[in-house]
Amino acid sequence: MSINLDSWRSLPAAQQPEWPDRGALEQVVTKLQGLPPLVFAGECDNLKAELAAVTRGEAFVLQGGDCAETFAGATADAVRNKLKTLLQMAIVLTYAAKVPVVKIGRMAGQFAKPRSKGTETRAGVELPAYRGDMVNGLDFTPEARIPDPERLVQAYHSSAVTLNLIRAFTKGGYADLRQVHAWNQDFVAESPAGKRYEQLAREIDQALAFMRACGADPEEFHTVEFYSSHEALILDYDQALTRIDSRTGLPYDVSAHMVWIGERTRQLGNAHVEFFASIRNPIGVKLGPTTSVDDALALIDKLNPDNEPGRLSFITRMGAPKIRKHLPELVEKVTASGAQVAWICDPMHGNTFEAPSGHKTRRLDDVLDEVAGFFEVHRALGTHPGGIHIEFTGDDVTECVGGGQEIVEGDLALRYETACDPRLNRGQSLDLAFRVAELYRS
Ligand code: PEP
Ligand code: MN
Q1: Does 349 show up as a binding residue in the annotation?
Q2: Is the separation of the CB atoms in 36 and 242 below 8 Å?
Q3: So where does phosphoenolpyruvate get bound (predicted)?
Q4: Which residues line ligand 1 (CB under 6 A)?
Q5: ipTM tops 0.85
Q6: Which has the least CB within 10 A, 51, 80, 365, 422?
Q7: 262 C-alpha vs ligand 2 centroid, how far in Å?
Q8: What interhelical angle do 22-33 and 150-171 show, nearest 10?
Q9: Mean pLDDT across the stretch 193-204?
Q10: 0.80 exceeded by the pTM?
Q11: Count of H-run helices and E-run strands, the chain
């Protein structure tokens, strides 16, 4: 079988940088093509099998991380804090909701951003928008905002560093269940969510002690499977990291285990959908409130023609006021078509607004309300609420309002550090996990 990975090139591609020098881009692509894979195709297949369990209603996805990772943010502390928060959330879900949790980071590759506006204006000065560290710089200067293809190579190396840390943390003892208290140590005293978590960790300790006394100490208690994902936006990058798997002879994007198509690039007949149809990774597509049933069915036909469970996840991001109105018909008709998809809720991107201070923010209450709506819709239809997709950080930032620590709009300036959209901080993330566990159980 001949495999054509270039078919997207003749189609319109939205949100691609205007590289000033095509020759420089081509050199970078050649360099990337010669670099080792970041993940193995077999690992992508393992994730696909776990997502197939989600599709069958037997597991739950927890996918999250920064809106935009930065090169400067790939430090041991920042990566550990994100991982720790995600592990704590996963523990809450596994223990309180009694469901296996598939853990996927928006990590080790989430370096490119689609923008609704091509430029940004500050104090009367207009410059090209920031498109993620993979493309240009965040600094508000004309030089920083020029797309630089060398950044694609930096994105690869930054992904490699992050993934290496993640692999060491998750396989080297840090993710061992006996660490449930340790993950919380710096957190418990000052926050309601931390205290609530501590109670649960004590119960887990008891259960583990009982299991050990019975002679049971399975491998699953000592390491976790953790997968990487990003929005595959810059097609030159993701194609350069697409390789033919020696076991199967099929192409996999080995820059991450899972990749997704954003709300702004999911047009049928366009380049992103075409490229995604050619790779064999598990993939996601973001679906906003304007998605029609026909759009969803056509995406399924194009992206999962063999109806393979685990291959395709729909990540809905409707907004709290809209989800109960727009989601039911989509889920109902897709289900009636017999299509195998996992339904994941992104309760962040439909709930962004600008605070009076000018900060882009989100209310935790809106996030929780969209998640509640997601569960209501799936419960009413008898379908499986398959997971959540969130933007969070392990640091105590003040980017979203609400939560146990009661961050208000006036606090946003205190620690507003995101390179793009506002993220839940650690306490807000745990608040969300406890709420999701309650919704899952009920
Ligand atoms: C994102 O996930 O950061 C994003 C841009 O989302 P969406 O494509 O849903 O707008
Ligand atoms: Mn975002």
Answers
A1: yes
A2: no
A3: 106, 263-264, 286, 317
A4: 67, 114, 231, 262-264, 286, 317, 349, 421
A5: yes
A6: 365
A7: 10
A8: 30
A9: 90
A10: yes
A11: 11, 14
